[in-house]
Write a structure and sequence with these properties.
By secondary structure, the chain is mainly α. The protein contains five helices and two strands, in the order ααβαβαα. The N and C termini lie far apart (62 Å). The model has no long low-confidence stretch (mean pLDDT 83).
């Protein structure tokens, strides 16, 4: 009986850890609110990236292990949330800001760094329209 109690506590602790890990992943990716932009806006952003000459294939050799692990965690969260877009297979890494585009297009503008972007970039366009 005592063993069953320990197992129940262990399962509860595991669920709390998973929830905390999930919240951390979403906060790192989407900002403190953990809420992505709507699918239509993300699709418009991705379409812009796919037409951009700064969208380069992601070179796994240039990504540190820590960054690669974060991308994998965030990609898993994105998959779990069924956040898929048309043409995302063509999205790589932006050679201006260095961001992984399949994830970045979902991030609310308020959580995106104030990096100087080209005029044709959705980040520049969205900031200019404010």
């Amino acid at each position: 009986m005592l063993n069953e109690g320990f197992q129940a506590v262990a399962r509860a602790v595991d669920r709390i850890r998973q929830t905390a890990a999930g919240a951390r992943i979403l906060a790192e990716w989407l900002g403190d609110g953990g809420v992505p932009v709507d699918r239509q806006l993300a699709q418009q952003r991705l379409d812009t990236c796919n037409r951009c000459l700064h969208n380069k294939p992601t070179d796994a050799r240039s990504i540190t292990k820590t960054v690669a692990e974060a991308i994998l965690e965030q990609e898993q969260a994105r998959n779990n949330m069924a956040m898929f877009l048309q043409g995302e297979g063509s999205a790589g890494t932006c050679d201006v800001c260095g961001c992984y585009l399949r994830l970045k297009v979902w991030v609310p503008l308020s959580y995106i760094d104030d990096h100087q972007m080209p005029d044709n970039c959705w980040i520049f366009q969205e900031r200019s329209s404010r």
